[in-house]
Each structure stands twice: as structure tokens, then as C-alpha cells.
Amino acid sequence: MTSLFSSRDIQVKSMEQTVKHAEKYLGEICHLLGSYTRKTAKLRDKADLLVAQLFDFSSTEGPELQIGLKNLAEDLAMVQDYRHAQVERLETRVVAPLKAYGDIVKNKRTDLKKFNTDLNRELKELQKLEKVRLRNPADRQSISQAEVNAQKASNNAQHSIRQVEATITDFQRQKLEDIKKIFTDFITVEMLFHAKALEVYTHTNQNLKAMNVQKDLELFSGRLMMSDSLAGHLDTPLSSHSSPLMSRYPSPPVTFPKGQSLRPMQALTIGLNSRQPLSQFPEKARRSRSTLQRQRGMEEAELEEDEEEEDEEEEDEIYESEIEEAQNTSRQSYAAQYAQMHRWQK
Fold first, then answer.
1. pLDDT-based confidence at 94, cuts 50/70/90?
2. Most buried among 2, 43, 293, 330, using CB within 10 Å?
């Protein structure tokens, strides 16, 4: 009898130890992985703020740095989308199954408590039977009743121990399978995120290395020199500068021949104001027509030259814009290229 109870105690302690270890270590692991997931979500939020700052900063810089920072911000935003998926997968595939073990362990503790109650009842009934046998060995009726109660308690204990053994065995099997699956999912989620992030960051690194910092520096130096020259022009007196139109078309000095008064000029002005036809002055009319024709020819030639210059400037602008567009296309962010590929696939 003593050996029977000692073996049962060993079984009970072993099952209780299994449940106790599961409750302790799985609970701590669940707490740590929950904190890990929350920290990852906070890192995602901080990176989103960094993306916004990079976009704002890029609008204040030169073309090369602007393209580089925008591509970096777009790629970083794409990585945060992957990190958001990582957080959701960690919550559903890792943290949630570990949280479920709180209720599972509680149910197993209830089963063990019921089993201990049945064992204690069996032990009490056996102790009563021994007392009855010692006190009244001739009282067969009391001894028989005590034996029936002890047998019933023993049967209940046997049934309970078989049941709890099966329960704890299933618990251990399910725990092993769940731990294997949980941590396999954890590693898979981490591998997926880091593989995607490495793919994006590799492209981003190439874009940053292709950024021509010297070009932005030259543009900045040119702006500084331009501002210095404008400041020098503003400091000089206005009278010292002549209009470009005046330098291109200088007005002739007003002079009169010696001995000539203003009266003939006034007479000529009066005659023109009286709208006399030019046919009265045939030589003057011919000279005026030839002068007008020369002026018209010169103006048409100048217009043609201006149009040719404008066409050349437009062609240069179109060529430069095509080159710049090709450069920008070759230096697109990974996110932009991925979006284009996704649209083409649709």
C-alpha cells in the first residue's frame, strides 16, 4: 500500500512539474515576444516619421540630393509596410498562440486538482477501514461498509489517474508541437521581413551611391555667384547703367547745319501735319519707300534669327529634359519600380 501511494505521488509531482514549467516559461516567453512585437511596431512608427522628414528635407535641396532623398524615403516607407506585415504576423502566429496557453494551463491545473481530490478521498477511506479493523475487529458489518467505501474511492482514483495521465500526455504532445510551430513561424516571419528589407535596401544603396553630389555643389556655387553679382549691380548708381535697348538702338544726336534755323523744320512739320500726299514729292516718296523696305527686310531677318534661336533653345530644353527624365527613370526608387511592375502585371 505504501509503495502504491509513493509511486502515485511521484506521478502527481511529475505532472504538476510539467504544468508548472509550461506556465512559467511559456508565460515569460509570451511576455518577451509581446514586448518584442510592440517595440517593432514603435520602430515602424518612428521610421514613418523619418520618411515624412526626408520628404520635407528633399524639397529644400538640389536635384541630385532631392532625387536621392525621395528614393530613400519611398524605399524606407516600403520597408515599413513589410515591417507592419511583420508585426501583424507576429501577433497572430506567435503571441496569440502563446497567450492561449494561459487558459490551457489553467484547465490542466483544474484537472490535477480534481485528481488530487480523488487520491485524498481514497487515502481517507483506506485509513477509516484500518481504524475500524483495529477498534472493532468483530464488527463485520462496519468493516464491510468501510471496505465498500474504500473500494469505491480506489476505483474513482484509478479512473481519475488514467484520465489525468492521458490529459497531461496530450498536453505535453500539444505543447511540443505548438512550440515547434510557433518558433518556426517566428523565424519564418523574421526571414521574410529581412529578405524583403535586404532586397529594397540593396537597390537603395545603389541609388545613393549613384547620386552626384558635385553637381549639386556646382549648382549651389553658381547660385551664390549669381547672388553676389546681383548685389553688385544693386550697389552701383542707376545712371551708370544704360538700357540694353538703348545700347542696341542709339538715338542720333540732334544737330543742325550752320546757318540753318528752325523755321524750315517747322515748315516741314506743318506740311506733314496737313497730311499732304507723298505724290507731290516723288523723290522723297521713293526714298521713303526704299527706306521702309530696307527696314522691313532687316526686321524680317531679325525675326527669323530670333525664331531660329528660340527653336534651338526649345530643342536644347527638350533634349536636356529627355536626358534628365532618363536619369530619373534609371534612379527610381525600388517602391516606384515595384508599383510599375505591379500595374503592368494587372
1. very high
2. 43
List b or e across 2-13, with b for residues whose CB sees 16 or more CB atoms inside 10 angstroms.
Answer: eeeeeebeeebe
Average pLDDT over residues 241-248: 36
Task: With beta carbons less than 8 A apart as the criterion, state whether 80 and 44 touch.
Answer: yes
Which long-range contacts (C-beta less than 8 Å, at least 24 apart) are formed by 190-196? 190/86, 192/82, 192/86, 193/82, 193/83, 193/85, 193/86, 196/79, 196/82
Residues 37 and 87: their CA atoms lie apart, in Å, by 6
pLDDT tens sequence across 8-65: 778 888 889 999 999 999 999 999 999 999 999 999 999 999 999 999 999 998 888 9
Mean pLDDT of 284-293: 46
Residue 74, number of CB atoms within 10 A of its CB: 23
Select the more confidently predicted residue: 343 or 274. Answer: 343
Reduced to 3 states, what is the DSSP secondary structure of residue 333?
coil
- Show the DSSP H helices in the chain as ranges: 2-21, 27-58, 63-90, 96-135, 140-209, 213-235, 244-248, 263-273, 282-330, 334-345
Q: Give me the half-sphere count of Cα atoms (radius 13 Å) on the Cβ side of residue 229.
A: 6
Query: How far apart, in whole angstroms, are the C-alpha atoms of residue 170 and residue 107?
Result: 13
Predicted confidence (pLDDT) at residue 336 exceeds the cutoff of 80? yes
Are 172 and 17 a contacting pair, CB within 8 Å?
no
Global confidence as pTM = 0.65
Q: List the grid coordinates of 25.
A: 516559461
What residues have CB less than 8 Å from 67, skipping those under 6 apart?
Answer: 211, 328, 331
- Using the structure block, give the residue that is written with the C-alpha cell 485509513: 127
Q: Check whether 281 has a pLDDT greater than 60.
A: no
